[in-house]
Specification:
heterodimer; A: about 280 residues; alpha/beta; Alpha-Beta Plaits; 9-stranded mixed beta sheet; B: alpha/beta; Nucleotidyltransferase, domain 5; 6-stranded mixed beta sheet; about 25% helix
Chain lengths: ~280, ~110
C-alpha cells in the first residue's frame, strides 16, 4: 500500500499529516515514511533523527573529443539545450542535462560516455522498531531533484506500507511522487488559496489515475466551498483537522500532536483502515 | 562577417527584440555580400534550454557578431566559447537602427 500526501498549495500541513499519520499507524504496522520534498525536506525535524547518509548521483555525458567529429547530432537531439556543438569542441551544460542518455544513443562515433555527478544525498533512519524515515535532499543550486525522488521511492518500494510526503505544487516532482501510488491524500486549508490549488492538484492526480481524497487542515468550520468542490468532483473528505491553538502550539515546538491526543490516534488509525477499504483491501 | 540581430519580426524594419533565447526571429546580415536572411526561432515556447539552443543556431549559421538586449547565463556560456561577440541594444527601435548603431561603433560590447 503506497499513499501519497500532496496538496497543491504549500504550507497546508502535508508534513504535519504525514508525520502524525505515520507515527500513529506505526503503532501496530511496519511503516516507511518517505520525504519526497527534496528541496526542503523537514520530516526529520519531527523525529530528531537523520540516520545514515548516502550520496545520490546523476549520469552526465562526457565527450571524447578524439572520437568526436563534431557532427552535432547529440546537440540536435538534446531537448534541454545541455549540449552545444562548436566547430572543434562540444560544451556540456551539466545543470541543464536531464540524464536521459539520448545523446549516447544518437552519437554515431561512440564518443559519449557518462560520469556520475553528485546532486544530493539521502538519509535513512530507523526511528523505532516499526517506523523508518527516508529523506531525499537536493543540494543547493541543483535544479532537478527528480532522480532523488526516484531513488528514495526505489528504496521503499518493497515495503508493504509506505507514506510519501510530496512537495507542494503540481510540477514534475509532484508527478514523480504521485506516479505508482495506490492512493493520494490531498491536504488543503480553509482559505481561497487552499481551494484554488486543491483544484489544480486534484486535476493532476486524476490525470495520473491515482484515486484521491481530501483532508481539510486548520479547518475554521466554514468549508462550504471546499465541500462543494469535493462533492462535484467525487472527492471524499476523509478528515478535518480543526484550527486549534493547542495543536498549533505542539506543532510549533516540532512535536507530533497525535502523541498528546488518543482521539487523534484513533482518527489516523481509522483513516488508514478507510483508505485501505477504498483501495480494495489490504495490499 | 555575419551579424545577427534578435528581432520581433522577419525583416530589417521589424522592431528589435530584447531577449535572446526566446527572440521570435534572428535576422542575419552578411556585411560583405549584403545578403540578409531571417530565421524563425523554433524554441520560442520551449520550456527550457532556449539560450544554448539559440546559441547553437548562431554557431550553425557562422554568425560572428550578435546584437541583442539581454542574455541569460546558460546562453552566455555557450556564446562565450563560440567566440561570437555580443553587443547590446535595448532601445525600442528597428533591427536596421540597431545594425546602424553597431556599424557606427555606438553599441556597448557585453561579451
Amino acid at each position: 500500500m503506497k499513499i501519497v500526501v500532496a496538496s497543491g498549495k504549500g504550507g497546508t500541513g502535508k508534513s504535519t499529516l504525514s508525520a502524525n499519520f505515520s507515527y500513529v499507524i506505526s503503532g501496530n504496522r511496519d511503516v516507511v515514511l518517505v520525504d519526497c520534498d527534496v528541496e526542503e525536506p523537514n520530516l526529520h525535524l519531527f523525529f530528531e533523527e537523520k540516520g545514515k547518509e548516502s550520496i545520490v548521483t546523476l549520469p552526465i555525458p562526457v565527450i571524447d573529443e578524439n572520437k568526436c567529429d563534431f557532427c552535432g547530432k547529440c546537440g540536435e537531439f538534446c531537448q534541454y539545450g545541455a549540449i552545444t556543438v562548436l566547430k572543434d569542441q562540444v560544451m556540456v551544460l551539466q545543470n541543464l542535462c536531464h540524464s536521459c542518455g539520448g545523446c549516447l544513443i544518437v552519437c554515431p562515433n561512440d564518443a559519449i560516455s557518462e560520469v556520475p555527478k553528485t546532486i544530493g544525498v539521502l538519509w535513512d533512519a530507523q526511528i523505532d522498531s516499526n517506523l523508518r524515515l527516508i529523506t531525499g535532499v537536493l543540494n543547493e543550486g541543483e535544479a532537478n531533484g527528480i532522480e532523488i525522488i526516484k531513488t528514495v521511492k526505489r528504496l521503499s518500494e518493497s515495503s508493504p506500507l509506505v507514506i510519501y510526503d510530496s512537495s507542494p505544487g503540481t510540477a514534475c516532482p509532484v508527478i514523480e511522487t504521485v506516479e505508482g501510488a495506490d492512493f493520494c491524500i490531498l491536504v488543503t486549508e480553509s482559505t481561497p488559496f487552499g481551494l484554488h490549488d486543491l483544484k489544480l492538484a486534484a486535476e493532476v492526480v486524476k490525470k495520473i489515475g491515482v484515486p484521491s481524497g481530501v483532508v481539510i487542515n486548520r479547518s475554521d468550520g466554514s468549508d462550504n466551498e471546499t465541500e462543494e468542490f469535493c462533492r462535484e468532483n467525487d472527492l471524499e473528505i476523509l478528515l478535518k483537522i480543526p484550527f486549534d491553538r493547542e495543536i498549533a502550539a505542539i506543532q510549533n515546538r516540532g512535536e507530533l500532536f497525535s502523541v498528546y491526543y488518543p482521539d487523534w490516534q484513533k482518527q489516523f488509525t481509522d483513516l488508514l483502515d478507510h483508505i485501505e477499504s477504498l483501495c480494495g483491501g489490504n495490499r | 562577417m555575419k551579424i545577427c540581430i534578435t528581432s520581433k519580426g522577419n525583416s530589417l524594419d521589424s522592431p528589435a527584440e530584447r531577449s535572446f533565447g526566446r527572440s521570435p526571429y534572428f535576422i542575419i546580415v552578411d556585411d560583405e555580400t549584403g545578403e540578409e536572411k531571417s530565421i524563425a526561432n523554433e524554441n520560442v515556447d520551449a520550456t527550457g534550454g532556449v539560450g544554448p539552443k539559440s546559441a547553437q543556431l548562431l554557431i550553425n549559421n557562422d554568425v560572428n557578431v550578435l546584437i541583442t538586449g539581454q542574455m541569460g547565463g546558460n546562453a552566455q556560456r555557450a556564446v562565450e566559447v563560440s567566440g561570437i561577440e555580443v553587443y547590446q541594444y535595448k532601445d525600442g527601435g528597428s533591427v536596421r537602427e540597431a545594425l546602424n548603431l553597431y556599424k557606427e561603433g555606438n553599441l556597448e560590447k557585453i561579451l
